[in-house]
């Protein structure tokens, strides 16, 4: 029960932090006049779950892209063999020749090699990682898509009956755009550097623990985040061109006769 409790706590803390940040921005934007109401909390709930669902969907698509790179560009591009499988075996030193027996010659350094059994173990390990990535990516993508669709339909159905606009607020759009844009700005150059290093760096010593970082995961995240980034950028651009909804003006007081 303890691991499950910690997992639930780790899932709730980011949601509470994002909700608190959104409410703080909302209060500042309204000049401190915004108050908590049932309709406001319900609208915030719908937007929060939709935002978290999009983040989970991004994680699932990243895993699927990473598995696709492994099929297209090789398993080493996306996955690293487990340290237990990467054990070096040194070749036996060469025997000195009879002609050079009189002179003292330095012993040649052993050349690390990897036996076929270890290579097969590494290949099986990377195939297992690819299968697990596919299974997790499909599961996360399906669950996140269903949750997003249910809460989108719920917001469109329930909020108008309570007199609340069902569309996403500008605070929600701004937070999601900031999250996806920061992810893209960080991962795009990092993915380019890792891919370049993967193809241009000298080949590592076989069986050593100093193996290069597979660039597939970073490249998958950089590619998967682009549609989310563009979608929220276009949405918030359209929202910025629309006038901000304002509260109805209070009726003027009757003039004294």
Provide a concise account of the structure shown.
The chain is built from six helices and two strands, in the order αααββααα. With 257 residues, it is mainly α.
Strand order of the largest sheet: 1-2
**Could you report the average pLDDT, rounded to the nearest whole number?**
76
Structural class based on helices, strands and sheet pairing: mainly alpha
Helical content class: 55-70%
Q: Write down the Rg.
A: 28 Å
Helix/strand order: HHHEEHHH
Number of helices: 6
Query: How many distinct beta strands?
Result: 2
Strand content: under 5%
**N-end to C-end Cα span:** 74 Å
Q: Assign an overall shape.
A: elongated
Low-confidence stretches: 1-6, 85-90, 247-251
What kind of sheet is the major sheet?
A: 2 strands, antiparallel
Care to describe what's here?
With 257 residues, the protein is mainly alpha-helical. Helix content is 65%, strand content 2%.
Topology at a glance:
Elements: H1 2-29, H2 38-73, H3 75-78, E1 89-90, E2 112-113, H4 116-158, H5 170-200, H6 216-241
Antiparallel strand pairs: 1-2
Helix pairs in contact: 2-4, 2-6, 5-6
Keywords:
257 residues, mainly alpha, two-stranded antiparallel ribbon, 65% helix, 2% strand, elongated, disordered N terminus
